[in-house]
Sequence to fold (75 residues):
Amino acid sequence: MIDYSPFWITLQNSKESTYTLIKKYHISSSTINRLRKNKPVNTVTLNELCYILNCNIQDIAQYVPSKEDQMLFRK
Fold:
């Protein structure tokens, strides 16, 4: 599962807020909500967030193994 808890720490340590992401940078409120709920977001959004927050991808997302992960292949 992709977990976005690093994003919230990075955002808290930045000069930005969810308000500025929405109003200044036009990140949709539904995208913010998807991050809150660890739902999928596209790589363009991740790229924009890295640019806005001047950070690396690992400062926004991390992989956490989960039994709920979909298997894309079978052994």
